[in-house]
Automatic annotation (TrEMBL):
It comes from the Bacteria. Residues 1-29 form the signal peptide. Residues 32-53 are annotated as: Disordered. Keywords: Signal. It holds the Pfam family DUF4292. This is DUF4292 domain-containing protein. The keyword tRNA-binding does not apply.
């Protein structure tokens, strides 16, 4: 009898130990399962975050592509215009003409009202800047490294061309290639229809405002800041878009410039209001300078423009 009771106790003890052992194994499995689940969630969240960032990058790239695709296909833009200059106590409006040939020239001609006689001409080519003052029989012809405020800001013909042609630009590059589009940032998170697009390069900041739906550029800003050479701001606003083939081109360009990169602070506002936008190619890019005209120093180009 005692043997049987002792045997039963041992069986109960063994059963109890087995239950405790099973419970302990179950607990261990639950703890391990919980840790594995937590690690899995962390990995899943990291994957989702990576996918979200990739998606945002692709959305930005697609929008910058849309902006770039708005550029017109034509090589020539020509139009009579009303030209207004405001600087200091000067506020003048005269008839003029804008003639541009892609990668060759940007030409602005100013005329005497009613008579139609040319009084001034401003030209930008890949090689030089030319300013002709027919009233004073003077001219400036210089390359971009000789013009102080252009040299200090690293502005080239192709930078100016992009601004006049309502396009994105990259300093030092003739064009913005498709492979360059990833260099631009687009703030798609801002509210409203205006999306900021930007690119930074050293002391220079380039910024554009583009319509969210069409990708059309409505404004451009070029800002240069240097402790040594001062600060310059160029703001260009575009409007009154006209059809040029299957694309649109702004018949209204308004430029506002402030600079301390010259010896003294200078401010100017220029408005070009084109009566029409044509693609005429029957005109020469060559300009003859009379031998009677005096060539003057290129160091004060802005003052010469303002004195015309």
């Amino acid at each position: 009898m005692k043997y049987i009771m002792k045997k039963n106790k041992m069986m109960l003890l063994a059963a109890a130990c087995s239950i405790l052992l099973l419970g302990s194994c179950g607990t261990s499995k639950n703890v391990q399962g919980s840790g594995s689940s937590s690690a899995s969630h962390q990995k899943e969240n990291a994957t989702k975050g990576s996918v979200s960032r990739q998606s945002e990058t692709l959305r930005k790239l697609a929008f910058v592509q849309k902006v770039s695709d708005n550029q017109v296909y034509t090589r020539n833009i020509v139009g009579n215009m009303s030209f207004t200059l405001q600087a200091g106590d000067k506020d003048i409006t005269v008839p003029g003409k804008l003639s541009m040939r892609k990668d060759e020239i940007i030409r602005i001609q100013l005329f005497i009202p009613i008579l139609g006689t040319e009084v001034g001409r401003l030209e930008f080519t890949p090689d030089h800047v030319l300013i002709i003052d027919r009233l004073h029989k003077e001219y400036i012809k210089a390359d971009y490294t000789q013009v102080d405020f252009l040299k200090k800001q690293g502005i080239s013909f192709y930078s100016l061309q992009a601004l006049f042609w309502n396009q994105l630009l990259l300093p030092g590059e003739r064009t913005v290639k498709e492979s360059d589009l990833k260099k631009f940032d687009a703030r798609l998170d801002v509210a409203g229809d205006a999306v900021p697009v930007s690119f930074r390069n050293g002391n220079m900041t380039y910024a554009w405002t583009a319509n969210r739906t069409t990708g059309r550029i409505t404004a451009a800003d070029v800002v240069y800041k240097s402790a040594q050479n001062g600060t310059s701001n160029l703001h260009v606003s575009y409007g009154n878009f006209k059809s040029v083939g299957v694309k649109m081109f702004p018949a209204s360009l308004n430029l506002a410039m402030t600079t301390t990169a010259t010896r003294k602070k200078q401010e100017a506002k220029i408005s070009l209001q084109l009566n029409q936008v044509k693609t005429d190619s029957k005109w020469s890019t060559q300009t003859e300078i009379s031998s009677k005209y005096k060539q003057i120093s290129p160091t004060d180009v802005l003052s010469k423009i303002l004195s015309m």
